[in-house]
Design a protein that fits this description.
Blueprint: E1 3-9, E2 15-25, E3 31-39, H1 42-57, H2 69-84, H3 87-104, H4 114-124, H5 130-149, H6 176-185, H7 192-201, H8 205-209, E4 222-225, E5 227-232, E6 235-240, E7 247-250, H9 253-273, H10 296-309, H11 317-330, H12 335-342, H13 347-353, H14 355-377
Antiparallel strand pairs: 1-2, 2-3, 4-7, 5-6
Helix pairs in contact: 2-3, 3-4, 3-5, 7-9, 7-11, 11-12, 11-14, 12-13
Length: 389
């Protein structure tokens, strides 16, 4: 069935024309139809039916959805975010979308406009950071783009919203001496060996906390990073690494010695806790005394306190990872190697994140070129011009 026009005689005796149109199926597989009536002439009903048939052939025909914005967000979170994204990502989406639901939650989804969203963003900018509001917009845009794919909206009203650019804030990176100072100041802390190893491999927080002894070679010379520990409101769980990149990272002597010390403590605790030790199931390198997971937020707070005590402002656990990448690039390690060690999806990500380190390398490269050019002047024999006979 494509569509047809029909005539209706109202109780008043007035004749009006209308049409019905098959609009396909909704996301639940139920058949959808569009009915419109009240046209004074059959020609008017035919013209509107022809227009909608054209839209349907182009994939743009959408029947107004009865759901409110808040109801759609809940559907999207359940049907898309919570099934396709990591648990922490889905939680952040929910937090971001809540800003819009509070303001426009009762608005019918089909009537949501760009101006309404823009006004909410403008209001949020008065109390929230630009980066936060841009994150809200990003979540809204992704959700509404899915509504377009599902056939609930013809166009994404968030696509034309304008937001100020986020201020550029260069990430802090410590040089070799600064990292050494931080490690020395943390030597007596329970995270001392954790920091030694993390500084030598650049692992993300969750990756380090998910490391098991199965991921360590028998001679402790390298580790394989294959999982990450995620902390959500529902609790702790292991997941795949970011970008699903499994990588093996060789370790220097300082990290090897740290791993050996951790192993000794591990065996002591296993003997102490006996059957209550969780090593059989988790076998974690970095763990609580009973072998269980260490909460990521606990490590984050502890490292911030250690950094502050050592005299560093704005230094976090991620700073240590960022410093690892910067130090490698400054030491002239090739970009593809650094990218692989950090677990980036591609070298373009590494180049973008570590542009500051690459700039210094570029300056050093020019200096080397200039030195080579000067040295070549004394070696080249300049032949005098000879007149041709």
């Amino acid at each position: 069935m494509t569509g047809c026009t029909f005539k209706r005689v109202l109780r008043s005796g007035r004749v009006v024309w209308g049409f019905s149109l098959d609009a396909g199926k909704d996301e639940n597989g139920r058949r959808r139809q569009i009915y419109r009536s009240g046209f004074a002439r059959k020609a008017d009903a035919d013209a509107e039916l022809t227009k909608l048939l054209s839209e349907r052939s182009e994939g743009a025909l959408v029947k107004p959805d009865p759901r409110t914005v808040a109801e759609f967000f809940e559907t999207w979170l359940a049907e898309y975010a919570e099934t396709s994204c990591a648990g922490k990502t889905a939680e952040r989406y929910r937090e971001m979308l809540a800003h819009i639901s509070r303001a426009l939650g009762q608005q019918p989804l089909s009537k949501l406009t760009t101006l309404q969203l823009q006004r909410v963003y403008n209001e949020l900018l008065k109390s929230l950071a630009i980066k936060t509001v841009r994150n809200v917009h990003g979540a809204v845009h992704v959700a509404l783009e899915t509504a377009v794919v599902w056939g609930l909206l013809r166009a994404n009203p968030a696509s034309r919203c304008k937001l100020p650019p986020a201020p550029k804030r260069e990430a802090v990176a410590l040089d070799f001496s600064a990292v050494r100072h931080l490690l020395e100041c943390s030597a007596e802390h329970w995270l001392a060996d954790f920091l030694v190893i993390d500084a030598a491999c650049g692992a993300r927080r969750g990756e380090a906390l998910a490391l098991s002894w199965r991921d360590v070679t028998p001679d402790y010379t390298s580790i394989t990073i294959a999982r990450s520990l995620e902390q959500t409101k529902a609790g702790l769980r292991l997941k795949e690494t970011k970008g699903r990149n499994i990588r093996t990272v060789p370790l220097p002597k300082t990290a090897i010695e740290a791993l050996k010390r951790i192993r000794v403590r591990y065996e002591e605790r296993r003997a102490m806790f006996a059957g209550d030790y969780d090593a059989a199931s988790l076998d974690l390198v970095f763990c609580q005394p009973d072998g269980n997971f260490i909460r990521p937020d606990t490590v984050t707070k502890a490292v911030r306190r250690l950094a502050k005590k050592a005299g560093f402002a704005r230094v976090s656990l991620h700073t240590i990872r960022h410093s690892f990448g910067s130090q490698l690039l400054s030491a002239a390690v090739p970009l593809p190697v650094v990218s692989k060690l950090l677990g980036h999806t591609d070298v373009y990500t590494t180049a973008r994140v570590y542009a500051h380190a690459l700039e210094s390398d570029e300056s050093a490269a020019i200096a080397k070129w200039e030195a080579a050019m000067k040295a070549s002047r004394s070696k080249v024999r300049v032949m005098p011009n000879r007149k041709q006979a």
